[in-house]
Amino acid sequence: MSTIFSSCAAINGEPLFTAELPDSSTIAEVFGRARQAAFRFRRVSIDQRIAWVRRYAEYLTDHRDEIRDLISLEVGKLPWDADAEVSASISKIELSIAAFQQRRSDHVIQPQPGSIQRHIRYRPIGIALVLGPFNFPLHLPGGQIVPLLIAGNAVVLKPSEQATAVGDWMLRAWNATGLPDDTLQMIVGGTETAITAIDSPDVDGVFLTGSRQAGLAIHRQLAGRPEVMLALEMGGNNPVVVAADADPLTTANLVSFSAFVSAGQRCTCARRAIFVDSPTCESQITALVDSVKQLRVGLPVDASAQVGPVISEAAATTLHQTYQRLVSLGCNPLVPWQVDDRFPSLVHPAILDASGLTDQAKRVIADLEWFGPMLVIDRVGDFDAAVQLASETPYGLAASLIGGTEMMFEQFVNEVRAGVVNWNGPTTGAAGVLPFGGIGASGNHRPAGYHAIDFCSDPIASLQRSEPVSDDPWSIVK
């Protein structure tokens, strides 16, 4: 008897997508079709592949209101946030094309006189399994699918079980472009589906956007299979350091946005704010606390809302458990935990103060991973101590410095150990023309963004001669 899988609206529980949960034989059939599609698709010209991805951008543009509303309905994003995701998805197309042309297109290395030519070509990896997240259900899997298709791969998408309706919409949008059959397919389900898919002998690459726990599990599952390319984009315990000269109001705006945009459900959201003790320190913290208390929290239907709900009641419960653990470590709530009476996943932003805790307690805090609107602040004696505390985490995704000098920022970049390091902006600031990824427990040296194209193919080196070598190659040993 088949098992029915459903994905429902985050706000009202309305079923948005329903299908049979695939068993191992169904998943094997999907990858079998993908193998045949990959063989055909790699032979398609790059111009034709680019034409298909541009048609996808046109489809997104023509249907942006439709997909914006679906994102908002399924995962609870505020409409402005969902619309920004659609814009980023559209922009990703031309950026991926430019990245391919700049970083991964076939070329000849400084032609030499005579008959020998030195060529670099790029061969698609084959079949890529893309495991998408719920927080950017269109943009983040799309940011891997687009360069994979440009490079000539077949793709199997498993969207988040909490955002499968968006994944289905994406699949239908690609089909509308005329993309060849089975070049992009979708499987549905949760962890068990992903495990079965990763075990497929037809998998040539696995692309994850998700938690550290999920990334570690996949890394272990692929032990002994070095032929499978693995790209992990995981979470972080991202610090923002506030220098003594930072304006209090500017600090409040940048830190609160870093921590609480998208209900704190961005992997780059700030989890710790570290203030350099100075005559302005208390006014900076007071301005932050006051501004956060005034943030308007609401559902997507609330036009004035600045912070929306977390993905589910279960996510809110998990976040509350982390809050309680922070309190048990000695953190002092400056903006205490609060959930809106109207909706169990509508969590108000919370701030806790870790100043004065032991070094051991602070190490525990820096090792935690949480996904929601909660921030821990701390005070340190000077800038060097702030940089050191910011760096004392196994994660390494994003960091930001507010205030300070160019020399201080150079020190910050060199010592903070993160893949996205900003100055006088939020930790969530990213640009499509730059790489995007973390180090340490936040990634495995596969930055996405503009550089995602780099691990969608393998380089092939060729020494080419128009005629066979006439001289005896063994003459070098005579």
UniProtKB/TrEMBL annotation:
The active site is at E233. SUPFAM superfamilies: ALDH-like. It holds the Pfam family Aldedh. It catalyses: L-glutamate 5-semialdehyde + NAD(+) + H2O = L-glutamate + NADH + 2 H(+). One of its GO terms (cellular component) is cytoplasmic side of plasma membrane. Pathway: Amino-acid degradation; L-proline degradation into L-glutamate; L-glutamate from L-proline: step 2/2. Keywords: NAD, Oxidoreductase. One of its GO terms (biological process) is L-proline catabolic process to L-glutamate. Residues 6-457 form the Aldehyde dehydrogenase domain. Its EC number is 1.2.1.88. One of its GO terms (molecular function) is L-glutamate gamma-semialdehyde dehydrogenase activity. Belongs to the aldehyde dehydrogenase family. This is L-glutamate gamma-semialdehyde dehydrogenase.
